[in-house]
Structure formats: C-alpha cells, structure tokens
C-alpha cells in the first residue's frame, strides 16, 4: 500500500486529490492535511482525500509521496515541520509557482535520504480555495518538474507518473529557467492586469469606465482577481525576474507608444499586423517541447508503478536514470532550439 | 416603407443586419453595400440584408437611416461619396470606435438637412469579418450615441431606437468623453496586449514560453489577434488619448514595480488585496449609468417608430427634445458622480 499525503487542500491540493480519485488507483491511500479543519473536512466530503490527518506529523508519517500544495511562503515552514517525521526514501514534491527559493529550502531543510522533486503544475484559475477544485484542472497542462541534485531516478519517475496520472504533461526545466519563463508568461501578465484595473478604478471617471467596460477589459483584468496571498508570495520569491520582465514590458510599451506617435503609419500598421499573424500562428500551432527523453518507458498508472516502487526505489538503483534523463532532455532542448533558430 | 442602408458588411455591419432580421421588423427594408462584392453576397445569403445594392449611391438613395460600418479611416471617404445622394432629412450614423474625428468629418462633409448621430456599439470580438457576424453581438452591450449639433431630436430618437432594436443599451456621451474613456478601457488594453505578446514572441526562449503559456497568457494577449486595420485606425484617430493613458499605465506599472522591489511586503500585500476586492465589487455590481432621461417614452420596436417617423421627423419638431435629453443626461451624470464621491 502506497500512501500519498497532500498538504494544503485548496485549489491545487484539492484538485489533485479529485484527479487521483478519478484515476481509480488501487493499492494507494490518499491522505490530506490542511491547517484549516473546515477545508480538510470539505476535501474529505468531496472525495479528494480518503482520510484527513489530524496533524501534519501524522499526514506525512510512513508516506511514500508527500505533495506540499500550500502557499509558497508556507512551504518552508512545512518542510521544517515535516522533516523529522519523514521516512527514509520518502519522495517530497511541491506545487509552488516559483521554484528557486523552494529548491533552496528543500536542500537546506529536508534530511538526507529524502528525495525532493520540485513541481509546478501550470494550471489555475482566478477562483481559489477548495470550492474551486476540480478533477480536470490539470488535464493537458504542462507540469514542470525540477529534480533536486539528491533526488533518485525512481523518485523523479514517481513524480512524473503522478503528474501524468492527474492528466498533466510533465516537462523538465531547471529552477532558474522555470522562474524566468514563469515571470514572462504568468507573473508579468499578473502585474499588467493589476495595473490596468487599479488605474481605471482610481480614475474619477470610473463610473463611466466601469459602465462602458466590455469583454476586453474584463479578460484583460481577470488576473487581478487572483488570490492576493498567491500573488504576494510570487512577487516576493521571484522578485528579480518579475522586475526584469516588467522593465522589458515598459520598454516594449514605449516602443509601441513611439510607433503610435510617429507619422509613419505604415510602420505602425506593419507592427500591428506582424503581432497579429504571430499570435494566430501561436494559436494554430503552439510550440511543442518534447519530454521525457526517448527509451524511458513510463507506466500509465500510478498504482502499477507504486507496486514496482516498493521493491525498486528502495534500492536507489535509479539515480543514473535521472542523470541520463536530464542529460537527454537538455540535449534535446538544445537541439530543438538550434533547429528553430535555423528555420 | 423605411429604408435602412448598412454600408460595410463586416463583423459590425453584418451583425447589425442579423440583429435587425431577428427583430422581425415590418414596413422596413434593409439594404447593404460593401466594396467587396463577395462580402455583400455572403451577408445577403446569411439574411443580414434583404438586398445588396450594386453601388454606394444606390444604397443610400432614398434611405431613411444610413449606418456607416466601415473601418474608421474609410468613414470620411464614404461621407464624401454619399453626401450628394442623401435625401433631405436622412439620418446618418456610424459605428466607429473613435468619435472626435468622425464628428468633425460629418460636420465638414455631410450636407445641411442631413442628421448625423455618431454611434459606437461597445461590442466586438477578436474575430473579424462577415463570417464572424452574429445576431446577438450587441445584446446587453452599451451603445454610445453622440448627436451632432445639427441632429434633430427625432433623428436622435431613431438611432436610439435602432440601438435598442438590435439588443444594445443606448447611452449618451460627448465625443471627447467617449474617446478618453474608450482609450482607457479598450485601446490601452489593446496596446498592453500587443506589447505582452510581441515581447514574449521576440524572446529567444519563445519555444519554452509558448509551450508553458496557459489561459492567463492567452486571455491577456487575445486583443493582439484583433483586425490590424481596426487597431491602426483607432491609434491614428485617438492618438492623444491613447498616448495619455499609455503614460499613465507605465507610471502605474512603475508604482507596482517599486512596491515589489521594496522591503515593505505588507504594503505590497495591501495593494494586491485592495485591487482584488475592487475588482470583485466591479464584477458583482458594475457601475450603472442611466440613460435616457426620464419622461421620454421610447417605442420598443423600430417598425412602429418608423411609421411614426414619416410624419414626425420631417417636421423637425424634436430638436428641443434632444437638447433636453442631453441636458438631463448630463445633469444626472453630474449628480451621480457627486453622489459617488461622497459615498
């Protein structure tokens, strides 16, 4: 019997539980813990977890995989609290939206013999909390995995299988790459969305603006409705990258402002039309980044994998596989990038 | 028999035709014209118009209401071409996204005895062209009306009724107000959306960015897929206002950047949480701007109005009503704004 412990049962933790339930795993027990007993009770009632552990210690005790799905700044404290209670060879993963800090905390705090694999399911919505959880949240979404240096290959494979089991598509990055990419396509839109809404809202003309605002304004400011704690933690733990992309964004806005104010209306048209064509191309054939490397067979179901794991993981046979997997994955990325640049 | 002529049968003109058809008007003929005969044929086939006029002149000849639904920069040329062929007391309206230039062109070009009422249905989507037209496009959307100084009250009422007939909610503004509000809630998001997409697209990491990009990035860059000609014309005819709001947007982004880089994480949290609460309040109870003024009974159907019009409009009895309507509308806005500020 494999025990999966989900710590934090909000949107991500709750949805993961529901997606695991949908996968109808056998031979696997899903236990949950949340600081808020009402949230835990709700997850239990919704079937996202099979039992609610009364304490964090009991949740992680004898657990095979521990998924830390709390707000980012709480991850560190959870690591500190669970560290003494983890069994040897336990696999710890997280779901935080920024990764460099979390990887550092894991290395500092988690004991030797515990395998940490950072994770970030690229899924979410502006509604947060357990009531927003849904089993299909991760379907078809990228799930970024970042193995720590001490994670065995079996542990990496276990988290990869977990991601696939909940419907996501695992992909490998390193923490710095992840954080700069996430800043560009997720955290920058968050700031840009907040800025647009707060600018309009602070205007004396707000009654008229709000009345005239259509779907464009609503879509564009949707991210400003996200959970404040999440945005706050993202900005604090990815500050340098967010500020970097904000700078570049302001420069791009100023480039467009110059085009708009210039008398070269043809250049303006060309810039608009190019952007439009590029976006259409993006929608019709989004860039694909292939993982995992070839030759690595993955069991489709977590439970069959779990049965293997009891025998396999404990022997640590697989740290070479990880290195190989990572090396191959990086190699393929490099080739892919070179190929694209030549196109 | 009242004749409505729609000039330009793309998304807006085509949708207006379909919405008029849905209203099952009697005693009314809807004629269309498009420079592209294939577009006209498509509109005819879809039932958006009852007949396609072979020339612009034939389309507007003996028409009661002429709706100019072409790209903004073409409106001027259409005015020039139709001016000699308009019957006395014809009502001309347009659907352009910016209004100050259009109001100027109407005053310069349209002959005396023709009533111009500027219009802007605040509806649209990123798909353009006649194939994107739909009868429900205007349902529940604000439809800004800007009577020219020479427009009779009956003409204003006719365009107001037209807007209601297609499902929209007419509202009165002056052209300068309209253009600055539209710059804030519609044209600024357009630039912001383009800038985010082009920034990500130009990055060497684009394959990874595009692969990781989720619904947030897609929603936020949706406007960058808009028709290039429309964006171009908007920027050229509303340059000052767009640049003004872009400046303010950059300043707001810099304010947020300072909050993110400061060590006062509580102030950062407060700013995020306030914006989130304000947006929730906006979604649950958007500001309402009431028009028309009280005491003005509007016929619910364009056809009953059209029958009245033959007798009424021609007598020009109603220019006082317009002035009254506008004055009352402005008075109510003023009161409303004062009331809100005191809250």
Can I get a quick summary?
The first copy, chain A, has 343 residues and is α/β, with parallel strands linked by helices. Helix content of chain A is 55%, strand content 11%.
Which labels suit this protein?
Rossmann fold, 8 strands, homodimer, alpha/beta, 343 residues, 6-phosphogluconate dehydrogenase C-terminal fold, 2 domains, 11% strand
Fourth-level CATH superfamily of the largest domain in chain A: NAD(P)-binding Rossmann-like Domain
Q: Which shape of chain A, going by the Cα principal axes?
A: elongated
- Structural class, from helix and strand content of chain A? alpha/beta
User: Radius of gyration of chain A, rounded?
Assistant: 22 Å
Using the 3D structure, state the CATH architecture of the largest domain in chain A: 3-Layer(aba) Sandwich
Distance between the termini of chain A: 50 Å
The low-confidence parts of chain A are 291-301, 307-326
